[in-house]
Amino acid sequence: MSIKFRFLISTTLILLLTCFFSWLSMRVLAEDIIVSWIERYAEKQVLYDKERTLSPLIQQVNLSEEFANLDSLKAWAKQPDNAQLKQKALADTEAFRGRFADDSYFIGLKGNGHYYYSDGVLPPSGDLYRYTLDSAKASDEWFYQIMAAELDMHLNVNPDVELGVIKLWSDVLIRDGDAILGVVGTGLDLSVFLAQMVEKQDIYSAIVFTNYEGSIQLHKKQELINYATITKQAQDKKLIFSLLDDAESSERLQNAFVLAKSHPNQVETTAVHLNGVRQLASVVYIPEIDWFQTNFIDINNFLPLTEFSGLLLIFFVSLVCALIVFYGLLTLIVTKPLEELSLSIQSLGEKRYRAPVLSCFAGPEIKRLVHQYETISRSLLEHQSSLEAKVEERTEALNRLAKLDPLTELYNRRGFELFMAQYMQHWQTTQQPFGLINVDVNRFKAINDQYGHVAGDWVLQEVAKHLLSAVGNKGEVARWGGDEFLILLKQANAHTLAQLTSQLLDHENAPVLAIDEHNVRVTFSVGSALIQENDTIDDVFHRADSAMYAVKFATK
What we know:
Helices cover 50% and strands 21% of the residues. It is α+β, with helices and mostly antiparallel strands. The chain has a six-stranded antiparallel beta sheet with strand order 3-2-1-6-5-4, with helices on both faces. It is flat and about 100 Å long.
């Protein structure tokens, strides 16, 4: 065998191996980019879903905890057979009931085992007492296990056969110090939640909600949901880890759960195999409800292998033909175009596109390969741009939800504090004076009590419009909390600040609202403060607040 022939064979093998590893590097680099995009997309998607859809669920849990801390309820739970304490407690709990989304609640007392339930409709007996709990009955086992485990808060998913819906029950302990007095809670209809949040998922993702042990609480396949988790034996529970294809994937997901638990609201990702497909699992722990949200994203949908296999075959065939026919021009025909392609691949890793520059000596096969590569590269970059746009859009939506009050669409407390911090920096630079006005709606609780919370919410919206109209483009208005509003009056002096304060205090100028065929005049208690040298934000807040309360108490 001649040296020239051996050189030709060696060169051919080296070039073939080089091409193979170049393709492999391109494949790994592209996959790393895709996985990085998926991780960023999953993180924003999970946090966005939490704000958009889990907020009502978290709110119900918070209300259940507030309900369990009613003083009259605790007093009755200590003496469950005291009729007078019972009457007072039930009056307070009925007044509270309208705040629950399901307009219902239950009370289980440890002292006498009595179970009470109210949904606004009194039973024929006229008493909210329904039955006496029995630790020997399987149907009542949940009550005693929650107390035995000292679970201050427990979420329990159960189907309501009579209503044909799936309900989530938030169970909260009634405590007096370390003593457990009973269990209270409310139900939330999850049927709409399942339809919107779980079944209508993104094209690449599947969402599962579990508790810490991995017991499935919400899934698009209702047969996989663990109803009444606390009363089930371990072998009867349907765990998310059992959905995975192999033990290694299960172990990886369990480790992700541990990391997510130690870093609440932070997304942890790991690669797993589910339904015979390699997927990326993103896990986030939601401490408000003690649940985990897991998203499974199909990586292969982002990077189909079939597209690369065809290109590889064409690449190899074209190279062999080029080596046989154009051995003398091997460098100009193959090596140079491959160098250009390598540079273009490197630029793709830097998220920019560099078109390969081919000489007139490049063979048609190489040109076709480069053209196909250019098509794939542009597709990948367009896909990246689309994903980044979605991430930016959802980040903007999260920022908006965090800064605005959903009822009045004014700044909320957090949003106004951020705005004030920026404005204080502006004031320290320009020294242009400004004022802060604290506005409190008089007798708002009486309006709520007499006309209901829906009317009260409408009154707050009308008050917001009235304040915006009064302030105009001279400042910013925020809902500080409840029926309290704050106004930042820009470039104000003592005269303009006093003028606006007087306008808001003028009862003749106060808005008159028609509620249930009654004309209700809504008046305000108003206090104001002008920025002074060396003031902090808290200093101005405190003076305006003190001035408002001075007016409020003076008018009583």
